[in-house]
Amino acid sequence: MANDTHAAKATTFGFLSLMARFFELAGSLTIFSVRFLGSVLFPPYEFGEVKRHLDELGSRSLPLVGVTGFIVGLILAMQTRPTLFRFGADAYLPAMVAISFVRELGPVITALIVAGRVSSGIGAELGSMRVTEQIDAMEVSGIDPFKFLVVTRVVACIILQPLLTAIVDGLGLLGSYVAVAIESDMSWQLYWNSVTQSLTFADLVPGIAKTLIFGFIIGLVGSHQGYKATGGTVGVGRASTTAVVLSSLLIIFVDMILVKITVWIWG
Amino acid sequence: MIEVRGLAKSFNGLSVLRDVDLTVEEGSTAVILGKSGVGKSVLLKTIIGLIPPDAGSIRIEGEEVVGMKRKALDSLRRQMGYLFQGAALYDSMSVRENLAFPLERQVRLKKDELEERILDQLRSVGLEEAIDKMPSELSGGMRKRIGLARALITNPRIMLYDEPTTGLDPVTAREISYLIKKMQERYRPTCIAVTHDMTCTRIIADKAAVLHDGVIQHEGTIQELEREADEVVSSFFVTV
Predict the structure, then answer these.
(1) CB contact under 8 A, A144 and B101
(2) What DSSP designation does A218 have?
């Protein structure tokens, strides 16, 4: 009996401390976001640094997201074609792939890959700068490290995400055409016409809007984990891992909400 | 002039600084001596506003640092230099970029003027040839020299050194100490250095203070401290 009470107390304590950590993290991320919004509009603007991050983060992510997009498009077409064929609806394959990619797959796949590639990198880089006092060195020089390190990275991620997603969408559609061309004699022209006719404004806008929000999440979470890192090299590793886990979870969670909003607005 | 009065700081209930009083006259160098973990670096970081104190006052050239607004603090920091224990060079930037970074954000200079200032500073620390190197290509002593050059490139009126010779071999440590002395004679900043290296202290200090149990227990010139009978002070002057 006494043991049961002790176990129940321990479980309650564990749950409460988990909740406390959750709210602490949510609060810290909110403050970080507000600080970002308060800093991004005011000078000095570090355009050179944003450009450097765009070059670096874009070139680092492009091969991986490009190959993944192409292969996912190919697999999607290979998997769906037999089923559509059974119902005599294989002519709808280009439209189905296009809508899937533009509305959902492209933005989410790109965001999850970039979260793994970029958010962890930002977390590790800023975490390492934190534990080796490089951020303090910036601060004591009278330079705002938040502006130089965080704002520039988040802005670069926001700009980068739609561009990478557009490339993934394009390569995904190309991959799906390759799968279709292997199995049938559909021409590229016919495939492309079917794709463009199926896409509407209601498909494009949410797809693009999503990528901007995902870019913000990737940059912000990675920067937050790195900027707040403590505890030496262990802390850097933790910052990097948590950045990936947290940004991926947030992307999926926010996507769920955005899908609901999109369906509510456009049906 | 730097004036610290009644400074206190604790972390998670553990009191590190209890009641620190310290005055450093303009253009002079004070060395804070103390064993490892006694709170020397905390004192220095509190002075420059990186760690907010729990109580007390810090006045730098008459301006109160405690509770200072971010903008005013940044403006004050631009008149200060800080040499970190591990030099804290920006490892994604070359030596040139490390030196240019604080300078081009404080002074509007033409490209060739900026380059000349950087070269001049590197010449003064004897590392002109390292201008295009990355921090990862430098030895510990070289990193300290570049850190010193970066801290001094904006001609600060206040200079803070956090363990300037820690982790260096005795020969390099002595070279760095003489380099600090040379830089002090050249720029005449008001300096505080924290260290437990007595050789460095003898070379650079105008006065020294011993931090122990969260308070400055003794202060004076090196000669005065050498004559002190107190065990904490005399332990720094023991020769084997």
Answers:
(1) no
(2) H
The verdict on a CB contact (< 8 Å) between B105 and A134 is no
Does A132 sit within 8 Å of B75, measured CB to CB?
no
Full pLDDT tens readout for chain A, 267 residues: 667 788 888 888 888 888 888 899 899 999 999 999 999 988 888 899 999 999 988 888 899 999 999 999 999 999 988 888 888 888 888 899 899 889 899 999 999 999 999 999 999 999 999 999 999 999 999 899 999 999 999 999 999 999 999 999 999 999 999 998 988 888 899 999 998 898 888 888 888 889 999 999 999 999 999 999 988 889 999 999 999 999 999 999 999 999 998 888 876
ipTM of the complex: 0.90
The SS3 of residue A117 is helix
Contact yes or no for B84 and A143 at CB 8 A: no
Tell me how close the Cα of B118 comes to any Cα of chain A, in angstroms: 16
Burial zone of A122 (CB within 10 Å; 0-12 exposed, 13-18 middle, 19+ buried): buried
Q: Say how far apart CA B154 and CA B102 lie, in whole Å.
A: 7
Residue B88 and residue A142: Cβ atoms within 8 Å? no
Spatial CB neighbours of B28, under 8 Å, sequence gap ≥ 6: B190, B191, B206, B207
**What DSSP element (H or E) covers B11?**
strand B2-11
**What pTM did the predictor assign?**
0.87
> Any CB–CB contact under 8 A between A133 and chain B?
yes
What would the pLDDT profile of B37-96 be if each residue is shown by its tens digit? 899 999 999 999 999 999 999 999 989 999 999 889 999 999 999 999 999 999 999 999
Instruction: Look at residue B162 and give its three-state secondary structure.
Output: strand
Q: Go through chain A and tell me how many residues it has.
A: 267
Give me the residue from B50, B89, B91 closest to A136, CB to CB: B50
- What's at A144, amino acid-wise? D
Strand order in the sheet with B14-24: B14-24, B2-11, B55-60, B63-64
> What is the distance in angstroms between the Cα of B122 and the nearest Cα belonging to chain A?
18
The crossing angle, in degrees rounded to 10, of helices A106-114 and A232-266 is 170
Sequence-distant (≥ 6) Cβ neighbours of residue B220 within 8 angstroms:
B207, B208, B228
